[in-house]
Design goal:
Layout (H helix, E strand, L loop, with lengths): L2 H12 L15 E4 L15 E10 L2 E9 L7 E7 L7 H12 L3 E4 L12 H12 L2 H16 L4 E11 L1 H11 L6 E5 L16 E7 L7 H13 L4 E6 L11 H8 L7 H18 L1
Parallel strand pairs: 4-5, 4-6, 6-7, 7-8, 8-9
Antiparallel strand pairs: 1-2, 2-3, 3-5
Helix pairs in contact: 1-3
Length: 287
């Protein structure tokens, strides 16, 4: 397939909203992980991370998520939704959920495609993301279903909720914030900012956007329009652009995927680590 066609499809995934753009806790897998971390809300130095697969419903569609938490922390914790890239709910989004659990949060890696569906090729990724985002109400229903599943978890303080997203997922969480979802914080990484619902005074969340300054899928015009709209409603936000970072800079698979599909994707260790520190700072501030 020609590079221009693939780039077009990726652009759909990144800013897929612009083209139109209870919890059945059925555990199927449990994973115990023991990284040494220091949690922001107290807790033991040696953190026992537990990961569980769960299923939940969005209308008639079964969504397959993954929730991670530290079972040694007895008090209820802030909950964080993690929305995947356009590839779908995969190991990368689960790894980010684990990392948040290591910090003392309860994190749910959500499924926006249904049945845990994943894309193996940019063609499929564009189709999957497009099918969800052609109807904003579908996206909202699936986000709300994940939000309900997270809040119903016994380890979660339902009054302290944030959402983060990568690429396609970043556009999802930013749009949900613009629509007035009851979130304390939202963070988007290498995300499109040309959204179907632009910033409104309904925004409740404190917002962080961390993009690559050299990302060819995020135009200067879209950044100007987004920041102007955020300023016009006095939104509490920060937009950070990392020099030399391109699309998918937080993913260690970006180099191989970029090479495989001839796309401008690349991992950037410095930008990845700096953006994660910015996320930690944001969560410390709101929680």
């Amino acid at each position: 397939m020609k590079i221009n066609n693939i780039k077009f499809l990726l652009l759909i995934g990144v800013i897929s909203f612009s083209i139109s753009c209870k919890s059945d806790k059925k555990n199927k897998e449990e994973v115990i992980k023991e990284p040494e971390v220091e949690t922001p809300h107290g807790g033991p130095e040696m953190t026992m991370i537990k990961g569980e697969e769960i299923s939940y419903k969005a209308d008639s569609t079964t969504m397959k998520g993954y929730i991670a938490y530290n079972p040694e922390l007895k008090e209820k914790r802030p909950g964080i939704l993690v929305v995947h890239e356009w590839w779908g709910h995969n190991e990368y989004s689960r790894q980010r959920a684990d990392m948040l659990a290591e910090l003392g949060y309860v994190a749910l890696a959500v499924d926006m495609y249904g049945d845990g569906k994943q894309a193996k090729h940019p063609n499929d990724a564009g189709k999957f993301s497009g099918m969800v985002m052609k109807n904003i109400e579908v996206a909202k229903a699936r986000f709300d279903a994940a939000l309900k599943a997270l809040k119903s978890n016994p380890h979660v303080d339902a009054n302290e909720i944030a959402a983060i997203g990568y690429c396609f997922g970043g556009s999802v969480v930013l749009t949900m914030a613009n629509m007035g979802e009851d979130l304390d914080a939202v963070a988007a990484f290498h995300s499109g900012v040309q959204l179907p619902v632009m910033p409104t005074d309904a925004i409740k969340a404190k917002i962080l956007v961390c993009n690559g300054a050299a990302d060819p899928f995020v135009s200067e015009e879209s950044i100007v329009n987004y920041t102007k709209a955020m300023d016009s409603v006095n939104a509490n936000y920060e937009y950070i652009a990392y020099e030399d970072a391109v699309h998918a800079y937080t993913s260690k698979d970006a180099d191989s995927l970029g090479k495989k599909f001839d796309l401008p994707l690349a991992y950037n260790k410095e930008a990845d680590e700096k953006s994660w520190e910015e996320l930690k700072k944001l969560l410390d501030e709101v929680f």
